[in-house]
Amino acid sequence: MPDPIDERPRCFGSRSKLYAHYHDTEWGVPVHDDRTLFEMLILEGAHAGLSWETILNKREGYRDVYHGFDVKKVAAMSDGELAAALQNPAIVRHRQKVPAARTNAHVFLEMQDECGTFADWLWG
Question: Which residues does the annotation mark as catalytic?
């Protein structure tokens, strides 16, 4: 199906420039950087039950709330910070998904300790 944005055929992502850019530059590209992998973990967790385009539209909000996807900073987030995140319209305010980011950060750090990097665990 031709893309109304630039006429290139895409299997998805033709509804907006943001989605098309994601399709063309990120989707299906192997990632070996732990910060980017942690970002994807956070965003995919938020994505459950929602459209990916919804999450892409709020990506910068997630970047702000979750400290640029710095796993150590997310692991150290206080209950107060998580409560504030639940009030922030820049992200999807889901009462299980928001605190799950901190829990996932702790597990991510454990995997880094065991394997050197999360990427080593994932791709190894």
Answer: 22, 44, 52
